[in-house]
Amino acid sequence: MKVGLSSACFFMRELNEDAVKIIDKLDIKLAEVFLGTFSEYLPEFARTLLKNKGQVKINSVHTLNTQFEPQLFTTHPRAKEDAFYWLRQALESAQILQAKYYCLHGIARLKKNSTPKDHGELAHYFDEIMQTCAEYNVELCLENVHWALYNEPHIFRQIKVRCPNLKGVLDVKHARLAGHSYIDYIHDMQDSIAFAHVSDYTPDGKMCLPGKGIFPFRECIKRMMDYGFDGSLIIEVYTGDYKEYEELYQSYMYLQELIYKLKSH
User: Fold this and answer.
1) What dihedral angle (degrees, nearest 10) is formed by the CA atoms of 253, 254, 255, 256?
2) CB atoms closer than 10 angstroms to residue 39
3) Could you give the CA distance from residue 239 to residue 10 in angstroms, rounded to a whole number?
4) Which of 112, 127, 185, 265 is 20 to 30 A away from residue 178, measured at CA?
């Protein structure tokens, strides 16, 4: 099990090509790249990141999902074709960066009835997306997100029954914002969790870096380990949730030490 850092932690502080340099300087050897706009999905930009990232290994690629992901699930042929064009750009970039995973939000819940009650009905869309990912040697991972497709526990397993190779991303922040326990999402994804997005929160509910708040990380990691989890914990907070970059490294070390203690017992 490893710990990494999302470039989303630097959003509006640093551009991605500079963020990966900082992650390398912090001696954090694993990262998720949060690509924030269309020009960043292009392979040319991925080559810039590859040059700048130093010794950092890229775990996963994450896009600004609302820009094209909802249209991956449409029946409108032209909209779908455009969406898959941008997906392929992002996947080629992931391949250049040797990222193993693509993190999907999918449909945005902008309307009350924007998704079917039986989410297994979406399986044929997932099959098509997964086949496209496989062309670039990238695995598709569905993340629990309170405003998107996977906002409630039980949804993942409905899709997984018909798409057995689908992986999941546990986001503890989004579980809390959805009003559900992170435990319910772990039970839903079980041994299909590829990696996790982790953050902490203070007693008054403000998000903060892992180790600075009251989230039960030991219990959370142990519950994932009970299902055989040995993936990565990717720290994902926002720029207002910390002050100095050194705090990111401190949080990284907090999780590293916690994992070491859990595996030693």
Assistant:
1) 40
2) 10
3) 6
4) 127
Q: Where are the alpha helices (DSSP H) in the chain?
A: 16-25, 38-41, 43-52, 77-96, 123-135, 155-160, 172-177, 182-189, 217-226, 245-264
The CA distance from 36 to 62, in Å, is 8
Helix axes 123-135, 77-96, angle to 10 degrees: 40
Reference 142, options 179, 104, 173, 174; nearest CA is 104
* Helix, strand, coil percent values for the chain (each to nearest 5): 50, 20, 35
| Distance from C-alpha of 32 to C-alpha of 71, rounded to nearest angstrom | 24
- Give the whole-angstrom CA distance, residue 251 versus residue 13: 19
Q: Phi-psi category of 130—alpha, beta or left, where left has phi over 0 and alpha has psi -120 to 50?
A: alpha
Backbone φ, ψ for residue 142 (5° rounding): -95, 125
| C-beta of residue 255 within 8 angstroms of C-beta of residue 217 | yes
Model confidence pLDDT, tens digit, residues 38-64: 999 999 999 999 999 999 999 999 999
| Residue in this structure with the two tokens 């207002």, named with its chain if needed | 240
Mean per-residue pLDDT of the chain:
96
Residue 10 near residue 61 (C-beta atoms within 8 A): no
At position 75, the amino acid (one-letter code) is T
Question: pTM, whole model, 2 decimals?
Answer: 0.96
CA-based end-to-end distance of the chain: 15
Q: Residue 164, Cα to own-chain centre: how many angstroms?
A: 19
